[in-house]
Design brief:
This protein is mainly α and 125 residues long. It has six helices and three strands; from the N terminus they run H-E-H-H-E-H-H-E-H. Strands 2-1-3 form a three-stranded antiparallel sheet. The relative contact order is 0.18.
């Protein structure tokens, strides 16, 4: 019984470690990305060649249609920090573009309303 728990625990630890292997252990993106920022694949990203198992390719495929950073994390099944690192790498390479959803001078109420919409959308996934 203990052996089975160790194996199961090992599998869970390995599955959590896998996304961080995708980012070479990095937990901070090269650029600051808001959770609600919209990501879309650029023409360069549409034609880029990725290995079938490359998570960057998965992000470019997901973002052929605009998605928030949070949605990308949910669809990939990875922590938000991992999604931010992957998206940041693609942004630096010119393979995705980012569109902020609010202006810099947005009010507290506007920001709060946006976060509520993001949470509602994530719950619907």
């Amino acid at each position: 019984m203990t052996e089975g728990r160790r194996r199961q625990g090992g599998r869970q630890a390995a599955s959590l470690a896998r996304p961080y292997a995708w980012t070479a252990g990095r937990t901070r993106p090269r650029v600051d990305l808001a959770v609600e920022a919209l990501v879309e694949t650029t023409p360069e990203g549409r034609t880029a060649r990725f290995r079938p198992t490359d998570p960057l390719g998965a992000v470019t495929q997901l973002c052929l249609r605009q998605r928030s950073v949070a949605e990308v994390a949910v669809h990939l099944g990875v922590p938000l920090g991992v999604a931010r690192v992957l998206i940041g790498d693609l942004l630096v390479a010119g393979q995705v573009s980012i569109r902020d959803t609010l202006p810099a001078d947005a009010s507290f109420d506007e920001r709060n309303e946006l976060l509520e919409r993001v949470l509602s959308g994530l719950r619907a996934l």
